Write the structure tokens for this entry.
Amino acid sequence: MQTIKVPISKKQGNALNAGDSILLTGVIYTSRDQAHKRLVSLIKKGKNLPFNLKGQVIYYCGPTSTPKGKVIGSCGPTTSSRMDDFVEPLLKKGLVAMIGKGRRSSKVRNLIKKHKGVYFIAPSGCGVLLAKKVIANDTICFSELGPESICELYVENFPLIVGIDSKGNSIYKDLR
């Protein structure tokens, strides 16, 4: 199992293969449906995004409330297909990787291949255990969205599987 540090270079992403297990370390950003909608709206209007997407990772996650004395509440992945309509503008802005759970459409698989991105799968049902890999948590924008706000997380050794690699290979496609 290899450790990948964020930001992820295209070279690092290209070296990964569908099915590889990795440990991710660095800053990642949480974002779900409503935050994605706002990000894409900003892009369409030609406005600046609240963070630079170049080489970055978005985690499809809406953490639960943070218990006293903890860095974050449970932070498991949400179903990725709900974000499929928002993928292309974010990849064009430099996003390299997405983390979630479940299959992606063939359109998204082709976009990942075209933009040399990566789709990681986080173990679902393990939100409490994944929270132990989060060292720091800061809400950076859209706080009015509550758990759907965008948070900047610093993670160490966050366990992931490459679901779709930069060549367009998918573990889901191969399982059929």
Notes: Residues 9 and 55 are 6 Å apart (CA to CA).
